[in-house]
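Help wanted!
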Amino acid sequence: MMKKINCLIFLSFLASLIMAQGKKSFTLDDLLTGGCTYFQMQPQNMYTTWWGNRCVETDIDGCCLINPDGSKTPLFTLSDLNKWLGSTPASPALRSCYDMEFPDDGQPIVAVTFTRKEGNTEDQTSIYTTINFKTGEKTGEQSYPADATLLDRSASSNNLAYVKGHNLYVITDDGKNIPVSADGSNDIVYGEAVHRNEFGITKGTFWSPDGRLLAFYRMDQSMVPDYPQVDISTRIASTYPCKYPMAGEAIHKVTVGVFNTATGQTVWLQTDDPTDRYFTNISWSPDSRKVYMIELNRDQNHAELVCYDAASGQREEVLYEETHPKYVEPLHGLQFLPWDSSKFIYQSQRDGYNHLYLFDLSSRQTATEQPTKAGGTCRERVTVTPLTSGEWVVKEMLGFDTREKTVLYCSNEIHPLQSNIYKVRVKDGRRTLLDNGEGVHYGSLSGDGSRLLDRFSSPTVVRSINLTETKNGRTRNLLTADDPWKDYNVPEITCGSIKAADGATDLYYRMVKPVDFDPNRKYPTVIYVYGGPHAHNVEASRNYLTRGWEIYMAQKGYLLFILDNRGSEHRGLAFENVTFRHLGVEEMKDQMEGVKFLKSLPYVDTDRIGVHGWSFGGFMTTNLMLTYPDVFKVGVAGGPVIDWQYYEAMYGERYMDTPQDNAEGYKGSNLRLKAGNLKGRLQVIIGYNDPVCVPQHSLSFLRACIDAGTQPDFFVYPGDEHNMMGTDRVHLHERITQYFEDYLK
Amino acid sequence: MMKKINCLIFLSFLASLIMAQGKKSFTLDDLLTGGCTYFQMQPQNMYTTWWGNRCVETDIDGCCLINPDGSKTPLFTLSDLNKWLGSTPASPALRSCYDMEFPDDGQPIVAVTFTRKEGNTEDQTSIYTTINFKTGEKTGEQSYPADATLLDRSASSNNLAYVKGHNLYVITDDGKNIPVSADGSNDIVYGEAVHRNEFGITKGTFWSPDGRLLAFYRMDQSMVPDYPQVDISTRIASTYPCKYPMAGEAIHKVTVGVFNTATGQTVWLQTDDPTDRYFTNISWSPDSRKVYMIELNRDQNHAELVCYDAASGQREEVLYEETHPKYVEPLHGLQFLPWDSSKFIYQSQRDGYNHLYLFDLSSRQTATEQPTKAGGTCRERVTVTPLTSGEWVVKEMLGFDTREKTVLYCSNEIHPLQSNIYKVRVKDGRRTLLDNGEGVHYGSLSGDGSRLLDRFSSPTVVRSINLTETKNGRTRNLLTADDPWKDYNVPEITCGSIKAADGATDLYYRMVKPVDFDPNRKYPTVIYVYGGPHAHNVEASRNYLTRGWEIYMAQKGYLLFILDNRGSEHRGLAFENVTFRHLGVEEMKDQMEGVKFLKSLPYVDTDRIGVHGWSFGGFMTTNLMLTYPDVFKVGVAGGPVIDWQYYEAMYGERYMDTPQDNAEGYKGSNLRLKAGNLKGRLQVIIGYNDPVCVPQHSLSFLRACIDAGTQPDFFVYPGDEHNMMGTDRVHLHERITQYFEDYLK
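Answered by r_m:
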């Protein structure tokens, strides 16, 4: 009897040995950005850019033209470029050709930027040079300080705007360096993205189409306190300034200037008192004469599209208004039709889903308040025609095909988890699918929109890059990558849907089963969660968007479950704004539907359920641990929101209003008040210098737990901000894994 | 067979049940200060004070005279006092009689202090009142702001000095409030203890014996940076100032003023440039005409006893000098003989152990440099006679018996772990033991030193309080407390010695065995360590000084081991200063001798050895974990020093010199450089607002571990400083216990 058992054990050992020999295992370094072997574990890739309508491959050691038949014609090599720039092989000006630009459709010109030390000084200068790559001759050069930031070059005038020391400067094409502002400081900033990058704001300078006028943001944040951030790397620890406008507190005041490069004068848009107002989505008219902004009140429930005269700054008219009882969130500027400057595309969720609308400036009307499908109101002072509609969302507008007069965009019309590329004809709204109708596609359009570079993956395709004629959809495959994990023991990854807590809405989940899954065993299960707006975790791309850490955990014998609850993105306004004024409540109800589903599976060990998330997901993780202490045994909450009063006004008040207006809602989502509920093991991890979810969240939570007699665990990454990058990211995930290994396994 | 085993299991279960019924178990609350049941688990106590030579018991609800025969005569009750003060039972001025003082030897006067709200304002005033407790009449009253700090009252003049907003004030006996300084700030402070309370400095004001002149410290710390401490309890986290002079960096400059209450003028002692000098142990001559200081250079290896004229501030003479190649550490001011104002007692380690020396100002001599037994030099400009000597230390000088002309002190002459009370006759140095020769005694002398209150405990006596005639040693027991733990399952606590790593020196340890100890089992073992100077952990007092947490851990099945290594106190200078310029090295060698001893014990599980310590003990814990990663499996390091360059100059440079002078030593003790060695589980715990071992220590260590790829654990107590108090202390020890339970058990 004993012999037989020993024999069986030996056979089982042999089998696992064979499996281990047959398939390799991942390290965290293989699976995480920042891991030293991460890039060699990624599917083959190809980097391209446009030279007018021509597609150019920009590789590390040279650039090739990609011909219509898919063949490649070399344009130049890296060593050519360095030779033309006069640099030696020992200290090359350029180290790769990845960032090459081809600014002139008609000419063989490549634009490069490099840094040069000036004379015997320590000063560095950045040089922007254009070179004729047929002759090797330089055709232009422009220099600016190497510590210039937020560079913004006008394609039409070649004028360059940049920021240094919170002041804005312009360098003209002929090399003149003009200071636009002089009093920039930590309190007053120029040319930077404002309103903490909410409302689609990603930059602070906006060249007019002719490249002669520069609209720019000025932000007075002198009334906003600095959150005290501590730098421990100095000889004696020191603080550095970090303006942080908390919910319900005084916020910055933004104004918009228009700098004229010919006169050197700045005109200010006459917006009236900027107190408690958001100025978003700055756009220019094609003739460079008008500046448009979408203006939002602090309550974020009333948006106005306003037209200003660029020369005088005068406020000319309100073209359109939109309200909603919860919030309106303008995220996209105006896109004028290249072939008709009286019309532009506007994006709105007024029908409940983000769609494209054609606004016609040449067709004026008396504005009357009309109800919107989303439950708000609108006033149209120009004719507005929906270009797209339906219970799906336009995820991204790619641009125009000027010859066919179509608009190109990505949407999830086929399936909520997909992203496919369509063209819509402006004259009649006829939609045509331009891709294979599967998975998730990202598109990039050539100069006139006649060609489309389509980058694609799906659960069965790791990466496919295709060049498509937008006119007829004819396509040529440039790259189909092999699966780089084919020799590895990859867990089974599935996707499915359950009903939300409302009993009606479909929610999508991803499940990553333990490697060598045995349906007769019971596995410890970890729910990874984000759950907040403007994000999703499940989609029909490679591995259903599985994160590397999930693969690693599956390899260690865990089952992973990831569910996009109501409140997350790409499912329409009502799906998102159900959380209004009580963040966390509906999201948790949905996650508990996920738990109910998990409990129905025989291979889930319901006594060993853990949860992990970061940021909003850290809020969810902490909240779930404290609200369902008998369900979740172990949690790891990264950079969590603990109390929305410590979060910034711009994002926080959209969903929660102010603490003054919504005391009940803030109280209900204040996790300090639940600190005494902690039963399982919860580790809170933050970047010590997190400027997003400032340390006050987690530290005040620890204080509350200490006072309540509960024992969370805690870790900080000194010097790191809201997310850990590089090798710290690997260290972090070792840490998270170890915590589940210690307490959930 | 099976039945027999079951039966045995049942019997064993029954036995433990009986034991559990027979003896109770402790909670952490029972064992830790801050625990809600701590005080009821302490031995009975008695609080006393002196009324001249009469001993008075000050209890919560009244005061009693303790008669020579031990009987008690009530003096007054708390309600008497409150009645005399005119307060109502609903809002009594006083809530206990613990702090009563009897300032007048000849009169039935009690002095009390209470706080009163002034009129309709929010202002609070503190009132110092003297009351004749025979008649109930007030005999005097003095009021001062309730937020006054650092109160210092002259017993002879009744003048009161206090500090408010970093400025110094004096209130005279007749109620005049005189500001002594006006420019007090975070940069310039008056009347406060200086030099970070090193060199025996505990206060910043020093009344002359006649109570008319006030010597005081002024400290200019404008050149010292603030360590950025963050308060997370404000609406938006904020910083508050915390001057911190780090080793090798610029330090504060101290000067000493003498304020004359009659003239209102301040004279400054003419010390010359105070840069990089320490002014310590301010003392007055009995005639109130001279001020003495012991002045120390920044290198702390040369002390001068200097005499100043109080009226002019003139520097008159250097009476005595002492040097040592490592350091000299003056800790005690001059104590003039009450019966001969030309002589005083001076304490010094010049012979290698702290002893009493009689300095005779009336006997001058030419100072020549002489070698000291400790290896340094001294210069005596007055005749110096040793009063005590030998290879033991005077721990505390208690005062004088003026009738017998003796000096009373505590020493460990009988045994290094004991503290016994002696008198020494000044005229011939004849020593007489005044207590029972056992355990650890604390003494308090009556007005003329004729009576001694002797508080005592030993491993077999939990608390004994006795009143002794100093003349003849006749003693009367006032209280012998019952053991409050007699119904509890107290672990066996033993004490013994091993040889230090030098092979010669005796080191003392305490061992706390697991409750229900079974010598045939193997127990997880935790070493508790401090290991730094000016502290000891083992002595012959109650339970050998066992800390409550050790009892708790023993109850949970751990063996505890505590060893005072070389470098700790009460064993003489050479024992302490062997660590000079390389803190941690010798201390760890000795602790490893302790480990060697533990490994020789059959009941110690050598695979489960843990270590825990705080502050210097946190440094030791971290260092041991990183230096002997194969010995220590689990460690908890509280408020650790990680890099001595982040510690304060005054303490740090004494033992380590400056980072500039001792780069090698700082490198050798910089634990960041060993961060990659971590193998076991190490939790670092700090007070988030620690102003002693500032957070930069631990945070920089975490950074080093992250960079080295090791995984320490971490916790912070927001709002707490160097030590956790109150309920936080209980929370902390739950946490520490849990860590060993998780990883060592």
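OP: Thanks! One thing I noticed: Chain B touches chain A through 41 residues (CB under 8 Å).
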